[in-house]
Design goal:
This protein is α+β, with helices and mostly antiparallel strands. It contains four helices and three strands; from the N terminus they run ααββαβα. Helices cover 38% and strands 26% of the residues. A three-stranded mixed beta sheet has the order 1-2-3. The longest helix has 20 residues. The protein is elongated, with a radius of gyration of 22 Å.
Length: 127
């Protein structure tokens, strides 16, 4: 039976090694990590102020293992350890989900703390 237009006969499924490989560039994984960090921070009760610089990620990929370093700015006072833990979880989850890579560690560098704006009502309570 001749092949109709627009259809092709499929070859039997080949072994993964015979199909080739997919490589995701470090910079792509870094963009995924930075976006995941922004998402994690936006979901926190003490999100960084608007003037804070967006998170920046540096990633090194070796085979299917990504090592990630995130630099970010946080609002203060807040639970810094909890914010960093939320970022670590979200970044690892997002890279594993989107890129299919294992993320054994996510280092978080807090570059700057932004003090909360103290309005007149709060200032009176602090006295």
């Amino acid at each position: 039976m001749p092949e109709s237009r627009g259809t092709r006969r499929r070859k039997p499924d080949a072994a993964p090694a015979d199909r080739g490989a997919t490589r995701i560039a470090d910079r792509v994984v870094a963009k995924i990590a930075a976006q995941a960090a922004r998402e994690a921070l936006a979901g926190l009760p003490a999100a960084p102020p608007a003037e804070a610089a967006p998170p920046h990620a540096t990633v090194t990929v070796h085979h299917d293992i990504a090592r990630v370093r995130i630099s970010l700015e946080l609002g203060y006072p807040a639970d810094i350890a909890a914010q960093c833990a939320a970022v670590r979880r979200q970044v690892a989850h997002r890279i594993e989900d989107c890129a299919g890579m294992t993320v054994p560690e996510v280092d978080v560098d807090v570059e700057r703390l932004h003090p909360a704006q103290v309005g007149p009502a709060r200032r009176d309570r602090l006295r």
